[in-house]
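for the writeup, i need someone to sanity check this before i put it in the appendix. the sequnce is what the collaborator sent (i think, or maybe the updated version? ugh). structure was predicted straight from it, no edits. if anything looks off just tell me and ill rerun, i have time this weekend
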Amino acid sequence: MLDENQYLANKLIKNFEEDNRNIGELLYEVISQNLYSISLGLKMVKRNTEKDNLNNYLESLEDVTSETIKQVLDLSFHLYPKVIDDLGLIAAIQTYVQNYSPWKLNDYEMKGRENEEGALSNVIDKKLQLFRIVRDCLEIIEPLTEKDDLKISYANYGGRMVVQLVFYRRIKEEEIRNWLFIPQKRTEMANGKFSVHLLSSESLEVIIEI
């Protein structure tokens, strides 16, 4: 019964991620491109128009279109970060931290070698799962501690992917264990390992392996 529940849960997550991927790609490749074409058209009309009132109106439309493009791209990234296909897991995490997180990314290390086994789609699915878990951790820990340097280490050992997050601020280990219930469960459902402990009185370490 437990194996059946695990299978159904994994299938549900996979279907959910596939839906997110399809919607994210639609937003990124179709809707954002159409909006960008509209924005270019507004710029062209504005350059060839001399009436101030019309120019002001076109400028306001251009601003709204630009803001909508940004919102669409943000939504696309949160549903499915296309950068994970093109540049990999670390690039996706970096993009998230730099654009959507209050953390200052201190440094990261590339340990070991990218020895990806299995079909490419399976590798991408695995990286996407790991990205989601890391993002969950960052979003959960952020309100519980001060925003400061974050160190990310990543390694791929024969298909087992490991991410280490180190937060350089004092935080209660017992409190964070309770709050990290969701990413821990997601890791377990991916047949992975999830651990949290204090490296010192000033730093917290989270290790995710799937």
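DSSP finds seven helices and five strands in the chain. The mean pLDDT is 78.
thx in advance!!
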